[in-house]
Amino acid sequence: MSKQFFYNRQKAVEYANIYSFSRNPKYYDFSNLGGNCTNFVSQCLHAGGCPFNFEYPLGWFYKSINNRSPSFTGVEFLYNFLVRQDKSTGPKAVLAPIEHLDIGDIIQLSFDEIKFSHTLIVTKVNHQNPSNPYCATNTFDAFDRQLSSYNYFIARGLKVS
To answer: Where are the domains of the chain?
Structure first.
């Protein structure tokens, strides 16, 4: 049975605002090792109250660069962790249309129609155009950047619970 927790979406976005253009020294910066975007979004989820899941290798946690789960820093690994519903703790998500996302939800982008390689967190809903939310990310640092400003093939929305 899954342990219950409260995901504070506002706290996740506040964390994103602080660390979109800088790095939290408690976490390694993977910008030069393939990208820091998923690491950053995982930090936002944790700042919003999502508890770590220490079930290695399928869990979601970060203790150090050498003691972390693949899902904390890898785009597809995070997706697989979030949508897996049989875990004991940690954040969960379901696929959702972009226009149904709220602040604190996640968007993953595919730039080549083959694999997803970038992770964003929704920071503001665009009420005039709900399919074009504002997002934050690392590697290509941004805060309140509109989704439409990215040149991508596929956007995958993940509604966090």
So the answer is: 9-160
Measuring CA to CA, which residue among 120, 118, 99, 122 is closest to residue 110? 118
3-class SS of residue 52: coil
Report the predicted TM-score, pTM, of the whole model to 2 decimal places.
Answer: 0.96
- Provide the Cα torsion 61, 63, 68, 73; round to 10°: 70
pLDDT at 2 (0 to 100): 54
What proportion of the chain, given as a percentage, has pLDDT over 70? 98
The amino acid sitting at 139 is T
- Phi-psi domain of 41 (left: phi exceeds 0; alpha: psi -120 through 50; beta: other): alpha
> Residue 9's closest CA among 112, 125, 94?
125
Instruction: Evaluate whether the domain defined by 9-160 bears CATH number 3.40.50.
Output: no
